[in-house]
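Re: beginner question about structure tokens

> Can someone show what the tokenized structure looks like for a real chain? I only ever see the sequence side.

Sure, here's an example I had lying around. Input first:
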Amino acid sequence: MNHRTNDRRDRVALEFLLLYRSDEEAGRRRSLASYLELFDGDEELIASEYLQLQQGYASHSAATHSGTSNGAPPGLPSALGDEPRYLTGPRVGSGGMGDVHRGHDRLLDRHVAIKYPKRSAPSADRRAFLLREAVTAARLDHPNIPPVYDLGVDETNRPFLVMRLVQGRPLDAALADNETPRALQHWLALFQQICLAIDYAHHRGILHLDLKPANVMLGEYGEMQIIDWGLSSIAIDGRTDTEGVRGTPGYMAPEQLQGKRVTTATDTYALGLILFEICTGQAAFHRRDRKKALAASFSQGEAWEATPPPLREIIHRALQRVPKQRYQSGRALADDVGLFLQGVRERERRQLAARKAVELATAEQARRQQALAEAAALAEQLAQHPVETWDSLAAKRPLWQLEDAIDSEQLTAERALEDATSHLLEAFRQAPDDPEVIAEWASLCWERFQAAELASDRFQCTYFERELRALQLPHYDDLLRGEGTLQIDCKPRPQRITLHRIEERQRRLRPVQARDLVASPLPDGVIAHGSWQLTLERDGYRTLVAPVHVHRGERVRVRWRLRREHEIGAEFQLIPAGSFTIGGDAATLQSLPRARRHVAEFCMARFPVTFSEYSEFLRDLPRTQATKRLPREAGHGAPHPFIDADTLRVPGRRSFAQRWPVFGVSWSDATAYARWRSSRDNKRYRLPSDAEWEKAARGPDRRIFPWGNRYDARFCKNLGSTPARTQPERVGKYPADTSPYGVRDMAGGVREWCRSWFSQTNNQRLVRGGGWNQTPIGSHCAYRLPCPPHLVYPFIGFRLTHSCK
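And the corresponding structure tokens:
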């Protein structure tokens, strides 16, 4: 130190002494902090001089009164008399260089903290320790940093600091307290306060150098104080006046461990360690693991992986080994944590909005279920009050009211479903990662996907399938894959089994991709959902070709029998036993409600009965009966010219009609023919039932037409099939009009009498199928028509069925 520097220090010390004595004479009592503010830049010198003055006063007081100094310099009026100003209580904390006691300031009647240097420390170190902390306090006037009120000595000439008493618990104890857990956001908001307090200290030229959770005190009212500034250092031009290893193992930066110069980045490193502990609940380094601490290689276990990625990035940056790569200020670190918290708060807001939307969707679903239940109850009530078509309007009005009420409830259910869908879409938009929202949205999408698939609504199917697949939930991926199982139980055992996938080709469902199941069976019977065709063969038996439909996740077991040719009949197709879906076609007339039906094995004639076959029946009857059974025109009932009334044959000039399907016959004519054929062939022929006819036409896969789900006028015989004036044509002329069981002409040609009643009350038998002079609506397999059994029409004929018994 040169002479110029000594002169300046002497001059500053003299100025302070003159001011101090002047205050004494005037009866003024200045605090140490006040003097330090007046001598900015010379804080350590002023604190040292102040302490010497206090020591001198304490010695004078001890010699005069043999008691502890009351803290008031000579000449300062005091109400304490000879009593000490500060009363020292029990120790409340201890650090590397000092002990903190709870005390009481009797002059100002307040609780304070009194800090003494450890007795084990050399007297020079004690003095330097207190001076450093006093100078630090003089520079720091911040609500999160406890101020130093006074600097004094006791009767033993031991120096002490008087500070604000910080009451509460240290951060490390609060983090470990499982009884009062706090949300991560709470601790992060507190951590921001710590960062900003340290940033303030840095701007005042002070480094803490001993930051750790134990040096952060939390008050019961949320106040926070950073304590123990005894190792702090005054920074000069971005560096510090401190060298050597000082700090707490496990909370020191690599350069601090190596005794190198420290900077603001040294404190931000310690802040990063505190943040790590807040996020993971554990220390980043073991106190004794110096090697990892020097390499800044912190622990990365399960708790680290559970930490939100943005926080992991912040911690990574704060704990860089090279100081220049870290945060250079506490504010920068606090700002990044703030950005994370803003995102958390926004996510919380969106999550609350999403949960509210889920609640609204749940309410709408409940409203929908209530409306559907009410509609079902009203429908049941309506079914219990049948009316005749000729009943008066007054008698029908109450039933119309029931029908209107059913429509209203169904409309309510539809609107509720749409509202529930809208609410869940909004919930998913707000919180696409929330597990509850995902589960609710997936459940609704699956419900709507199933409904769309059942209704053959390809647009809705595609939309909700795409939504489900985007969620990437294994459970729904399995459901969408839709694998089921297929077990074939056939007697006698087939020698050859071929499986074909049924897919649409040229607007018709056709078998593709043959697979020999005898040579290559299905592993564990697992099969994809959809439509399949089985071909079962055994020598000496009719080859059985039949469709199978596997619903999603369904276990299908077919129990079929192979039949010999004479059991089936050359003109018949075998329809094996099994379930199928009947009805459910809102686009056609009088379709039954969709339902699953089991139908026993039966055989159905490949074609309707022709004029040629019917004429054989007439020729075998007595003349009087044959005349009554002649095909006839509607209305006046005159025989039409396609069978000669005298010869009971198809006239030669009309030979083209021999292969036409017979028409102009009543239900009783058709049943009479069935009885005659039964007697002739020694079989029990009959007209098909409602379910038998529809199953034979559409199979088990709910197809709309016998050939598939797309209509074309050239696929069957009805209006629009030819450019000429429409008229009947021979059976089998339209090969596309073939059902999955090989039954022909069920969508066109003639409509067919069935043995089932349409309405027994109204004396109406059931008519099925399309006709040569009908629109495409009649080609739907679910089409049904009522007709009195005694009437005849030029578009109604029939075909036979029998059971293989």
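Each token stands for a local structural state, so reading them left to right follows the chain. The radius of gyration is 49 Å.
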